[in-house]
Amino acid sequence: MYFLSLEFYLFLGLFVCLYYSFPLSRRWYVLLAGSVFLYLRMATEAFWMVGLSILFSYLMGVWIFKQRSRKKKESRAREILLCSVIVVALPLLLVKHGNPNGSFIVPLGISFYTLQMVSYLVDIYQGKIRRLPEFFPYMLYVLFFPQIVQGPIPRYEQLGEQLLEGHRFSERGFAKAVPLILWGFFLKLMIADKAAVVVNSVFDNYKNYGGCYILVAGILYSIQLYTDFMACVCIAQGAAGLFGISLVDNFKQPYFAVSIKDFWRRWHLSLSSWLRDYIYIPLGGNRKGTFQKYRNLLLVFLVSGLWHGVGLQYLVWGLLHGGYQIVGEWTTPLRNHIYERLRLPKENLLRVTVQRIGTFFWVMLAWILFRAESLEAGIHMILSMFQIYNPWVLFNDSLFSLGLAWKEWVVLCVAIFTLLQVSRWQQRECIRDWVLRQHIVFRWSLYIGTAIVIMVFGSYGFGFNAQDFIYGGF
After folding, report:
1. Distance in angstroms (rounded) separating the CA atoms of residues 180 and 176
2. Using one digit for the tens of pLDDT, what is the confidence trace for 117-142?
């Protein structure tokens, strides 16, 4: 059962009806039952491991809270925190880098719920959580079904109380949640899965391609990864919204970034803020001089690479982004001087466009390493992109040999253009708020029309099998 299956939406509809039929103070029971049921449905054999992790982290949280409340025991609380974080993170480290044997069962969503547990324990130690939840409400916080598989990664103070307080049914609430689900389907079926056909053709046979083939595949993979991940988050937010619950945003038009630093203020926000708050700042952040700041920055991106996967290419990808930011800071005075000599002020359209294209290019190069089957393969692809000159493949029929017919290329390009325009509009105002201001007939006609367009032009049809969400593999 996953976000693109009919089974999931039958499940979702049933539990929405049950949720609003219960008394307000008991509605969180439905969420807990639904979350446990869904997890058991998708990963029955791993549930005991998740349950033990939840129980252990909860008991350690209680212990830390009691020790932390006694001033003379603060050092003891720190020791308990350190030990509990190591134990909580150990299964994730074994899955990612311990090379467990074939009998080792990987719990669903382990990369995401592990970070939730760690943030919960640290927040208790830091005094951010002043009142501890009971065990079952904490269990719901960890297992809440819309976000357990691929995030976003919530903090307890962001989600905990929302889950328990009970929410009344509202047509406007539904009307604000439904477009998120539709937008997720649009991103997944009309962009990500179509782009994946070309991306897979080139990356899986990279030795047969070079030059502009790699450039096109790199651009499309950058778009695929973004739309695939954002699709999952949008559907998660929409599903949660049907219960009146808000999940944090995970993206803020990242490919509109004007620098790598700006990119990480916009990309995977819940992970970026987690790395900042629980690794970068505890290491000292930028408070102890330039050298320490750069060291901490590289360590943070090294951890990000380790979190994403096993393989040298992930480590290099992380370190590359850290290096990008260091070089970007070094060269900022020079670049600003050049722009001033060219009389291009900060908000000048040409300057902003050049910065966005440059940022996207460097991010794309890193994504090629990220997607490649190995670091060697990624380097080979990047070098061949510069060494082989074949721009004519962009204008003849060569791209049609990569798996998409010309009609599918048209749909893909129109869908990407639509994403661009919607992203530009979203910078000015929340589109869903604008839709809510329209008449109810227009509102629901728009939703139904969008669903029909997705079903007609999306990646459906004979033999259709939706691609797995990419970040589910992390």
Report:
1. 7
2. 999 999 999 888 888 999 999 999 99
